[in-house]
Write a structure and sequence with these properties.
- This protein has 380 residues and is mainly β.
- Among the domains are: 8-68, Laminin; 342-375, Laminin (Ribbon).
- Helices cover 8% and strands 27% of the residues.
- A two-stranded antiparallel ribbon has the order 1-2.
- Strand 19 and strand 20 (232-235) form a beta hairpin.
- Residues 2-13 form the EGF-like domain.
């Protein structure tokens, strides 16, 4: 146990009794990515979260009390990670030779033999699409149907996602309905061709000419938001008028925030871009041009813990950070986030079906998955 100097308290003497921060500034520093103070599992003190641990077991941890280390407890023995590993933010990191979510079993083969059995034909462990435990691959199952999964094979070498049509990735509509999927490769029926059997041989255009017409100015056919059929784009999901244009180049969802408000209520959307009313600016018309606070007040709200204004990656306007437009990936309340960390699918960040928020994808209605790549909306 730490014996704290005068004026400090906490298990590691990390909290200062006197606080120089304003109440508003302190509260802002205690909010997690979802804007919840200390994840509703602690109290905020001078910009730091004091986590609730009334049972003195210290299971609630993390900068924002976001971790629950009780998830590491072995239900049978009550030990943390079965006594064979360490717990970090609710996940067990096992000692050598021990495996499982709670580090509760050992392998009966050597690590070398285990690695050999899990190595796929391309030399990767479980094809980089699974985890190797005791010589057996557990493939990442991203199939929402709950059946046998899109990724399979002894070394996860088969990825059925490659057979899904671009506009309808996560149904059983393999190979555009015109072929058979064999270990992630489409065998097309007579009369159809293309990687996903999407091109009819009856079309007067060649496959390359068809795709070229559908690309327009994009690198992806239909901007990754639709199906190319004989040089014509069918935007997806069908019936959503927010996706439109000859090459599905307009995505009016980009004008909405996660609550569905268009251009912050201060403008209108034109082909996926906000046209702001007089007196407002920003990607979502979220910044007022006039300001009723002093420069000092504004700067205080824009400063991070280390005193940098907007993390040194943006400018401060009326207490809000405007992140540098030259570095498109910089985001966050204080420009502290890197949106390049957001997952991609089909070459698009968040698959074009959500917003990258501080390095994580927040999906629009009807989509889910780490990269918003899974359609869970109504059938179409």
């Amino acid at each position: 146990m730490c014996e704290c100097d005068e004026g400090w308290f906490g298990e590691a003497c990390q909290f200062q009794e006197e606080c120089s921060l304003s109440s508003k500034k302190s509260t802002e520093l205690c909010k997690n990515q979802q804007g919840v103070v200390c994840s509703n599992r602690g109290t905020c003190h001078c910009g730091s979260c004091l986590c609730d641990n009334n049972d003195d077991k210290g299971f609630v941890t993390g900068r924002f009390c976001e971790c629950d280390d009780s998830e590491c407890l072995d239900e049978d023995t009550g030990e943390v990670c079965g006594g064979h590993g360490q717990c970090y933010c609710g996940n067990c990191y096992c000692a050598a030779g021990w495996h499982g979510d709670k580090c509760d079993y050992q392998c009966d083969i050597s690590p070398w033999e285990s690695k050999r059995k899990c190595t796929s034909p391309d030399g990767k462990i479980c094809s980089n699409r699974g985890t190797c435990v005791c010589g057996e691959c557990t493939c990442y199952d991203v199939d929402p149907s709950g059946d046998w999964g899109d990724i399979h094979g002894d070394t996860c070498e088969c990825d059925e996602r490659n057979c899904h049509a671009m506009y309808d990735r996560y149904t059983d509509y393999f190979c555009s309905g015109h072929g058979q999927c064999n270990c992630g490769v489409c065998d097309c029926m007579t009369g159809w061709t293309g990687k996903k059997c999407e091109h009819p041989l009856s079309c007067s255009l060649s496959l390359e000419s068809s795709l070229k017409k559908c690309r327009g100015r994009s690198n992806l056919p239909c901007n990754g938001r639709g199906q190319c059929l004989c040089g014509q784009c069918i935007c997806h999901p069908p019936g959503d008028s927010r996706i439109h244009g000859k090459n599905c180049e307009c995505d009016d969802r980009q004008c909405e925030d996660m609550e569905g408000q268009i251009c912050g209520g201060h403008g209108y959307c034109s082909c996926g871009r906000c046209i702001c009313e007089n007196g407002w600016f920003g990607k979502l018309c979220q910044f007022p041009r006039s300001c009723d606070m002093s420069d000092a007040q504004s700067k205080e709200l824009c400063e991070t813990d280390d005193g940098a204004v907007c993390s040194g990656k943006g400018s401060c306007h009326c207490g809000q950070c405007i992140c540098s437009p030259q570095e498109w990936w910089v985001s966050g309340e204080h420009c502290e986030c890197d949106d390049r960390e957001c997952d991609k699918h089909d070459g698009l960040i968040c698959t074009g079906n959500g917003i990258c928020s501080c390095g994580s994808c927040e999906c629009w209605e009807g989509w889910t998955g780490n990269a918003c790549e899974i359609w869970v909306g109504d059938e179409y």
